[in-house]
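The following record pairs a protein chain with its ligand, 6-O-phosphono-beta-D-fructofuranose.
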Amino acid sequence: MSEIRRIGILTSGGDCAGLNAAVRAVTLHAHGNLGWTVVGIQKGTLGLLSRPLQYETLDPRRFTGQLLRMGGTVLGTTNKGDAFDYPMPDGSRIDRSGEIIEGYRQLRLDALIGIGGDGSFAILRRLAQQGGIRLVGIPKTIDNDVGSTESAVGHASAVAAATEALDHLQPTAASHDRVMVLEVMGRDAGHIALSAGIAGGADAILIPEIPADLAHVAAKIQALKAHGRNFALVVVAEAVRTETGEAMRQAAGETASYGGIGHWVAARLEELTGAETRVAVLGHIQRGGKPIAQDRLIASALGVHAVDVLAEGRHDRLVAWRNRIVIDVPLEDAIRTYAAVDLEGPLVHTARSLGISLGDGASTP
Ligand code: F6P
């Protein structure tokens, strides 16, 4: 029997669609079936750092209506502020992990469920080890770069948003005889670009895992034109580099996020092909929408399993989705293994077989 009666839950890192579905699943199962109290910690670990502490006891009745369907996270989140290297207003950086652990203790919690990505798990696991916290992780990220799970909460909805964007771009591209470039997120992984590009009928997909020579993309566009096609769709992942190896970044507050490669690609393609080119940068539209069914399903299954893991007296685990079943693996695996696009995997093969240029000039198998 587990000694657990009272658990905390927090969302950490960039938000995505499906976080509320995961919080809901944890609350309904832990409270409804096991009688545990579920404490929602606000704004990730910031809620434990603030004094007074920022939290709310989660009442299952709150989850009977809208929340399953809603994007964002009702708990709030942050993707800044490493507890062990915390930026202070005077510009110094200090270790504030002890304050967070003290905050956790003040809430008299028996365990913690963290919903995050690899960066969040690295910090949460360190805190758990230092503070003797029983921690279970639920993977979420639109980027889908967490190792050990085929799908993280939020990825499928981001792919759906990017696919829908291509559905919107194709008719206008065809009406104006244009090349449309869609820049999508994904940080250092090309999963969103590759999946949405295939699903949305792109002619070229550029991902950070495959260095591109735009001459190949231009040749593809010219070949389409020679066969009577008057438009082309190009998807580019935000971390793709220029031909000189430069990553494009945009200042965003104190930090710089990826951004701008779409405009660079468009300008180069216009030079190389003479075609009129336009750019759409999808940005946070990929994160903020309502979760599609697949994400609600994964979030619900992973949320329930996270509670089951704790109820079985286990912790330091990541719950994961593999081959349509829910498993759990050591949390350390999620931190150590980065999931980039598999260049030998089925989606790269599919893209090439459909005649989509991946910018490397490789011929169709
Ligand atoms: O990791 C999720 C993500 O949306 C990335 O795809 C993107 O590079 C980054 O976060 C954007 O972060 P921010 O919300 O801080 O602009």
